[in-house]
Design brief:
about 550 residues, alpha+beta, two-stranded antiparallel sheet, two-stranded antiparallel ribbon, 19 helices, globular
């Protein structure tokens, strides 16, 4: 990590020096190798590759990009009146700042890689060829990574793999299937140039590539490729299940045996404000990114049964006897957050504050503050209390984008879709459910394909919650039109109400709650009413500015 950050700092310094020169427009570019020197040395290549990595530092609407997707899913909401909020309501258009931003940001990264692959080949003879292949392989992986997301979000997109002259800029959209062919071919090619694990944190490895192949192939129903890549990574035994589920999403996650890659941050260079977004008002947060009630209710009880079937579930004590991943992922009423007991019911005008070994009653800001959690819940994952109080708004905690847990679920889902229901599917699922800090009952063998499909889909929501996967899962399963439309609800929070549902909602086989049977459902907070148009909303709009400047592009249906 330190070496990677060093090059980032070098690039930043060179840009600053360039900006101070009155004659800078006539000079060679300093934020990437010059087209006139064509990568004169190894340092320039390292700087150029680092310039691609720093495209991962993207925070649309003030949220880290890969986390932000889930705020437009049924697992989250963004209180800011932003493009994310419009996306959740099905109101996005070709001028939406959130959906437009990904197109520009990711094509900037792709252009940086095209510059490297177009101009660095001669340098291979001037440096260690293995190091050259590794560095260029990392860049090519990142280009494929960004293309995978572009294709998933927009469908057909221009596939550009070389630097273009101005007269070549009118580039039409390439069919999504061809883009995915390119992505998978690139990844399969570069994986052999990369180490299985990284001695330097934050760099792309063979493990990263295999994890991404399993993800992209799964997204595109290429089940055999997804299963094969996942199995190769699992069989390598380079990564292992971390017994500490919550620790993977704190500073200590840098050393987790399960983490494959994290985005690197460093104070003074680049930070993020996830703690500010997620923490309570009393903990100096803004609590403007928050989970709805239906995410809370998807977690099973510790007997492995949903809350509408388990005898362990008590609606008046709804967080007892629940899957421990509920408490690892979310902050629920009655749990401790930093130095306070988090409570959000309007009648709870006081709460407990911990002061060393003692605790005292103090006024409860969360109960009536206009900008406290509207839903009554907060996210706990991705926040380390070590950032409180000094660095709440500028955390340099690294954030996990690949881990073994996802790969195991990719493997299980691909095998289920292939109808290969062997012991390895149950082993993948139960290794996650059985981790020391979770210890949920094992999935018993003998399930049908449909039963296992539902189990895997529900497990993904519990295991991978608020890691940036739910938005893509409900789209590729084509269930977004079922789970998105209607009221997005928070907890019961009406004055005089007890704060809890009178009955558990009905839970469907993949964990989606329905509140039609709940006698006091009208006392739940309604955050907003959402919509999803299945003939349009499975793809994002092509940005208007792109259509105007590249007239060969066509718009997606309905925009």
């Amino acid at each position: 990590m330190i070496k990677l950050i060093k090059y980032i700092c070098t690039v930043s310094l060179l840009i600053f020096i360039q900006s101070c020169d009155d004659d800078y427009l006539n000079r060679l570019p300093l934020d990437s190798p010059s087209s006139e020197t064509f990568f004169a040395n190894e340092t320039e290549l390292e700087m150029a590759v680092t310039g691609v990595y720093n495209r991962l530092w993207y925070k649309p609407n003030n949220a880290v990009w890969f986390l932000s997707f889930d705020f437009a899913s049924d697992d989250g909401w963004d209180r800011n009146g932003s493009g994310i909020q419009a996306l959740g309501r099905g109101e996005q258009n070709a001028d939406n700042d959130y959906t437009n931003g990904f197109w520009g940001r990711f094509y900037q990264a792709i252009n940086r890689v095209n510059y490297i692959t177009s101009g660095a080949e001669e340098l291979r003879e001037k440096m260690d060829p293995a190091k050259y292949d590794r560095l260029v392989g990392e860049a090519r992986f990142l280009r494929a990574y960004f293309y995978a997301y572009l294709a998933e979000l927009y469908g057909d997109v221009p596939l550009v793999t070389t630097t273009l002259a101005l007269e070549e800029a009118q580039t039409p959209r390439t069919p999504k299937s061809e883009v995915i062919d390119f992505v998978l071919a690139e990844m399969n090619d570069v994986k052999e140039y990369l180490p299985l694990d990284a001695s330097e944190k934050g760099r792309v490895t063979k493990g990263t590539v295999l994890a991404m192949i399993s993800r992209v192939a799964l997204w595109n129903e290429r089940w055999q490729e997804a299963a094969a890549a996942a199995k190769e990574l699992i069989d390598s035994e380079a990564y292992h299940i971390d017994p500490d589920y919550s620790g993977m999403f704190t500073f200590s996650g840098d050393n987790s045996p399960e983490v494959i890659m994290r985005i690197q941050f460093l104070r003074g260079v680049e930070t993020h404000n996830t703690p500010r977004d997620f923490l309570s008002r009393m903990a100096l947060g803004h609590s403007n990114k928050k989970p709805p009630q239906n995410f809370v209710d998807t977690f099973d009880c510790i007997d492995g049964l949903p809350i509408d079937k388990s005898p362990l579930y008590n609606p008046q004590r709804p967080f007892e006897n629940r899957d421990p991943r509920l408490g690892h992922t979310l902050v629920v009423p009655g749990s401790r957050l930093v130095n306070w007991i988090f409570e959000t019911h309007r009648d709870s005008t006081q709460t407990w504050e911990y002061r060393g070994d003692d605790r005292v009653r103090v006024p409860n800001i969360e109960a009536q503050h206009a900008y406290a959690s509207f839903t009554g819940y907060l996210y706990r994952k991705h926040v380390d209390v070590a950032d409180y109080p000094t660095n709440v708004g500028a955390s340099d905690q690294n954030l996990t984008i690949f881990r073994l847990g996802e790969v195991l679920l990719n493997y299980a889902e691909a095998k289920v879709e292939l109808n290969e229901l062997d012991a390895s599917v149950y082993e993948a699922l139960n290794s996650l459910r059985g981790r020391e800090s979770v210890q949920m009952p094992a999935v018993a063998s003998g399930k049908s394909q449909d039963e296992l499909r539902n189990i895997v889909r529900k497990e993904r929501r519990s295991e991978l919650g608020i890691e940036g996967f739910r938005y893509f899962d409900i789209r590729r399963w084509k269930i977004a039109e079922q789970v998105i439309p209607g009221p997005l609800r928070g907890r019961v929070n009406r004055y005089g109400e007890g704060g809890w549902l009178n009955e558990p909602p009905m839970i469907d086989p993949i964990g989606t709650p329905n509140y039609d049977n709940v006698s006091n459902a009208d006392a739940m907070v309604v955050i907003e009413t959402r919509a999803f148009n299945p003939t349009r909303d499975y793809l994002w709009p092509i940005p208007r500015i792109e259509l105007e400047t590249n007239t060969t592009l066509t718009q997606n249906p309905g925009y």
